[in-house]
């Protein structure tokens, strides 16, 4: 690992915005904030993956992966981060290095690759991602990017987050560091208003930002930049002129918020678009911060009026499902904010949350779960559920439906139990008031599909379906990589 | 569950339906060494022939009595006689299947008497079996013509009083089954050590193989001898409600018990079929078929995400409508529009509000009104799909703008799996891609956000821009 990368990781781990981090000793802090990965029992993405997830939603730039084919070839165009215009972010660019490159170094190939992109596509900027192999052989992407920036007269941004640096969450932060070091503050906006905000850590999956944006539009609040969902290079480069920052999705890009506060004095708050009360609180916080920064105070009144109308509308639409969903049991296997933020909507729809995983949740997340679920919340918090345990839980009908990410879907499906995707690979947008209604509608759709009755019908020549028979041996499941 | 209504229009627009005699002629094409003969004008035959050629991409044997105005008025005996003699001397088939048409039925030709007369006059016709079925164009539809032809075949050709032949079963497949479906059913039946006789068997004649010789009549299909021996079977399996009269006729003639399968597409539907094969044969369900069942269950699990709550408009003949419609329903799709060609007891049991006996104009209008996500009908649905900008899944006859139609297979566990994957993939190709304006706020919310105070954002332009 290069000295610069090592220093950068240490810097990222020293997070003033994180209380847990600040409570640690200097030595503990160096170890980082994520648990060490256990070989043979690890699942999840690498730092490169995290950096790519964080930055790829910038839709008008080329994302060039410097490394062997696996890093880009096996993963490109697999997320549903939506664009309202440019599509170049979905093009897979990689240097696809070969054996000779490994021996002699691949910096020249990288430089040529950048030139080819400039000649063929001419995007406003190019992001270059470091990977393990090119990091190991000592390719200096910072130098190459610097040289290319000078040569081609356009920003070429090095993203130094090779996979072996750590887990996905670290990669989110390292990707964000690239924005702080090379992008934010390098351009000026055409104009700015007292109502300008940045939204940090929102990726516009399946267009979720567009479920929220009409609310802000109606209030006259302008999104200076979204970092990075449906993002444009020029908007992010001039993000430092916004009046307030909202930080989405727990702590994945907290360094952007804290450093923008240090450098430009932009206050931030942490909010969520998932869940109805969260959406309302988010709107309130945005209004509060903008007013504190000098916007007219009536913004807060208008915000409250909008919240009142929209909450009534959403609860009304969710309540319509109550009769059908009452008493149905949900197992929620996700992490972070979603471990609690969707619970109240599920409860309002009459669903009973029998378990929520807290593996990736922070202390605050857990506290929220206790607030929402009450005294017996502990019993419903699941720290780490193995696929085998999930399967047993579903098979024994302790839950009627599982909400989780794509990796664990087959645990539910092979037990012939309804499952719905609530993580990044999903095809439905669940943000804001609209999104909660959609989510409840999707749960209803999954639960009441007549297909379940069909697939649970044992073959007529079998008395009992072997798979559903109680006490049958549980097949071993491997989480899909 | 469904109300069955007949379109009240005087003018059918963009027809869904094809005629009865063509269905009957298609059934005759599933017999070995057969020449189907339409008793009507040349055009009756030519249109049908072209339609089947374009669907199967095969040479189609189909002859005509070539009636003209004079022969129609004077009676078609001479034309029919000449046709029989000419076909006998040129194509030399073992069997000639005659179907009447609108023209000759309107005139009222007594074709049965013509045939007797021709046989008396021409002893050389003695070695040629002639079967006649009355199929006026102005009644029924394609599947009715098929059903009538098969009913006629099994109520005239099988010998009576034959000893029972163990392990022999008869299969009477509906017109909606493709050659590929029949091959699948044959494989399933044979897996139990049973010997099936299919009547008719288009999988032998229209499966798109390269024959060793060029002959004027059908190549492959049910041999005449097999039809004569149908009475020796232990059971008749009729596939599709349309085949019930044929199965009843065979039972009346030869005493073979029968079971009608409304469909063999779908998990539990196929289960019932397989279960009966197991009982008829006294054998356990082979591991291979259990595996196929398991694969179908997995396909249903993987596929249901894409079918759930999707609104489908389906137009097809009753038995195909039933098979595809029930499969869609079982996968969680909503059968929002159902249009068909002719009456069937199945129609009112479809899981939908209304089944319209109508045309593709009705189909298009209803699909638009219901906001359907997917259209499903034969190739003539393509114009509607273009106009409505919706995907079209082609099913049924004709499919003139596709190749490989003979090998489409939606029967049995594997066929059902195909259906789920093919339709699911089409639905996946048309996943909605959301845009910035997909979730506009209602006026009440925008007014609340604008507040009572004058504010830049309350101007109409700004509001329109925010919610457009």
Describe the structure.
The complex is a heterodimer of chains A (481) and B (468). Chain A has 481 residues and is an alpha/beta fold. Helix content of chain A is 46%, strand content 11%. Chain A has 24 helices and 13 strands. Chain A has helices at residues 3-13, 19-23, 26-30, 47-55, 69-73, 99-104, 107-120, 132-136, 141-152, 168-182, 209-219, 233-237, 254-264, 276-292, 298-319, 322-325, 338-341, 343-348, 363-373, 377-380, 387-395, 409-414, 432-447, 451-456; strands spanning 62-65, 93-94, 126-129, 156-159, 196-202, 222-228, 244-247, 268-270, 329-333, 352-357, 381-382, 401-404, 419-421. Chain B has helices at residues 20-28, 42-56, 69-74, 77-90, 102-107, 111-121, 142-156, 179-190, 202-205, 224-228, 244-254, 267-281, 287-307, 318-330, 360-370, 382-388, 412-429, 443-450, 460-467; strands at 3-6, 34-39, 63-64, 95-100, 129-133, 168-173, 195-198, 235-239, 258-261, 311-315, 334-340, 354-357, 374-377, 392-394. In chain B, helix 11 (244-254) links the parallel strand 8 (235-239) and strand 9. The radius of gyration of chain B is 26 Å and the shape is globular. In chain B, helix 1 (20-28) packs across helix 7 and helix 7 (142-156) runs parallel beside helix 11. Chains A and B meet through helix 11, helix 15, helix 23 and helix 24 of A and helix 12, helix 13, helix 18 and helix 19 of B.
């Amino acid at each position: 690992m290069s000295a610069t990368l090592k220093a950068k990781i240490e810097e990222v781990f020293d997070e003033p915005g994180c209380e847990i981090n600040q409570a640690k000793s200097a030595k503990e802090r160096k170890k980082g904030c994520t648990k060490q990965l256990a070989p043979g029992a690890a699942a999840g993405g690498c730092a490169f993956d995290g950096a790519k997830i964080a930055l790829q939603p910038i839709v008008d730039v080329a994302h060039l992966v410097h490394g062997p084919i696996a890093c880009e070839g096996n993963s490109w165009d697999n997320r549903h981060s939506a664009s309202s215009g440019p599509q170049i972010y979905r093009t897979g660019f990689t240097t696809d290095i070969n054996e000779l490159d490994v021996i002699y170094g691949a910096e020249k190939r990288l430089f040529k690759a950048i030139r080819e992109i400039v000649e063929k596509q001419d995007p406003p900027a190019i992001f270059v991602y470091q990977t393990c192999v090119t990091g190991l052989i000592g390719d200096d992407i910072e130098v190459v990017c610097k040289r290319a920036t000078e040569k081609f007269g356009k920003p070429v941004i090095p993203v130094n987050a090779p996979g072996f640096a750590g887990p996905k969450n670290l990669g989110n932060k390292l990707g964000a560091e690239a924005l702080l070091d090379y992008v934010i503050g390098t351009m000026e906006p055409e104009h700015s208003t007292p109502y300008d905000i940045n939204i940090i850590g929102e990726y516009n999956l399946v267009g979720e930002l567009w479920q929220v944006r009409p609310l802000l539009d109606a209030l006259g609040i302008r999104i200076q930049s979204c970092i990075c969902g449906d993002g444009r290079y020029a908007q992010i480069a001039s993000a430092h002129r916004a009046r307030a920052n909202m930080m989405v999705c727990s702590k994945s890009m907290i360094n952007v918020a804290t450093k923008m506060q240090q450098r430009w004095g932009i206050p931030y708050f942490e909010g969520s678009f998932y869940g109805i009360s969260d959406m309302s609180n988010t709107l309130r916080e945005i209004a509060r911060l903008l007013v504190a920064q000098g916007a007219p105070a009536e913004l807060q009144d208008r915000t409250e009026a909008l919240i009142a109308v929209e909450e009534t509308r959403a609860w009304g639409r969710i309540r319509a499902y109550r009769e059908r969903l009452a008493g149905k049991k949900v197992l929620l296997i996700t992490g972070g904010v979603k471990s609690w933020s969707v619970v109240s909507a599920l409860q309002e729809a009459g669903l009973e949350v029998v378990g929520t995983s807290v593996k990736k949740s922070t202390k605050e997340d857990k506290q929220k779960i206790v607030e929402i679920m009450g005294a017996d919340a502990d019993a419903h918090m699941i720290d780490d559920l193995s696929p085998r345990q999930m399967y047993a839980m579903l098979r024994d009908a302790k839950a009627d439906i599982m909400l989780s990410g794509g990796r664990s879907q087959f645990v539910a499906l092979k037990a012939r139990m309804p499952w719905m995707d609530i993580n990044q690979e999903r095809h439905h947008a669940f943000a804001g008031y609209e999104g909660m209604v959609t989510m409840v509608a999707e749960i209803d759709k999954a639960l009441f599909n007549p297909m379940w009755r069909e697939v649970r019908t044992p073959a007529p020549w079998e008395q009992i379906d072997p798979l559903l028979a109680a006490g049958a041996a549980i097949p071993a499941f491997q989480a899909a990589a | 569950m469904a109300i069955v209504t007949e379109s009240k229009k005087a003018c059918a627009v963009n027809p869904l339906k094809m005629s009865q005699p063509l269905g009957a002629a298609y059934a005759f094409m599933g017999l070995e060494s057969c020449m189907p003969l339409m008793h009507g004008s040349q055009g009756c035959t030519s249109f049908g022939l072209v339609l089947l050629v374009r669907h199967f991409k095969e040479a189609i044997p189909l002859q005509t009595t070539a009636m003209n105005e004079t022969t129609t008025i004077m009676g078609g005996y001479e034309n029919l006689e000449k046709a029989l003699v000419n076909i006998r001397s040129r194509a030399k088939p073992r069997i000639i299947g005659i179907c009447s048409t609108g023209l000759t039925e309107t005139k009222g030709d007594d074709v049965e008497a013509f045939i007797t007369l021709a046989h008396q006059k021409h002893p050389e016709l003695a070695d040629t079996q002639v079967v006649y079925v009355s199929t006026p164009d102005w009644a029924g539809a394609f599947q009715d013509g098929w059903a009538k032809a098969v009913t006629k075949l099994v109520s005239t050709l099988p010998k009576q009083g034959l000893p029972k032949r163990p392990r022999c079963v008869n299969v009477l497949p509906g017109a909606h089954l493709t050659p590929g479906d029949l091959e699948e059913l044959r494989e399933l039946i044979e897996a139990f050590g049973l010997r099936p006789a299919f009547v008719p068997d288009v999988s032998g004649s229209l499966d798109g193989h390269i024959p060793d010789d060029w002959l004027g009549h059908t190549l492959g299909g049910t041999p005449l001898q097999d039809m004569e021996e149908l009475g020796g079977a232990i059971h008749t399996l009729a596939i599709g409600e349309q085949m019930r009269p044929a199965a009843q006729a065979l039972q009346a003639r030869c005493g073979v018990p029968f079971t009608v399968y409304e469909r063999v597409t779908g998990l539990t539907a196929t289960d019932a079929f397989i279960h009966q094969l197991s009982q008829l044969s006294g054998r356990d369900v082979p591991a291979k078929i259990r595996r196929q069942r398991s694969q179908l269950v997995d396909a249903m699990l993987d596929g249901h995400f894409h079918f759930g709550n999707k609104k489908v408009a389906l137009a097809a003949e009753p038995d195909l409508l039933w098979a595809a419609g029930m499969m869609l329903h079982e996968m969680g799709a909503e059968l929002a529009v159902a249009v068909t060609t002719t009456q069937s007891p199945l129609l009112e049991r479809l899981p939908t509000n209304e089944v319209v006996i109508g045309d593709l104009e009705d189909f298009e209008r209803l699909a638009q009104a219901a906001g359907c996500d997917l259209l499903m009908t034969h190739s003539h649905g393509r114009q509607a799909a273009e106009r409505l900008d919706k995907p079209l899944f082609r099913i049924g006859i004709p499919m003139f703008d596709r190749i490989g139609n003979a090998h489409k297979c939606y029967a049995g566990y594997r066929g059902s799996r195909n259906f789920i994957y093919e339709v699911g993939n089409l639905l996946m190709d048309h996943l909605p891609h959301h845009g910035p304006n997909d979730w506009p706020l209602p006026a009440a919310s925008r007014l609340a956000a604008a507040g009572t105070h004058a504010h830049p954002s309350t101007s109409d332009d700004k509001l329109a821009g925010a919610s457009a």
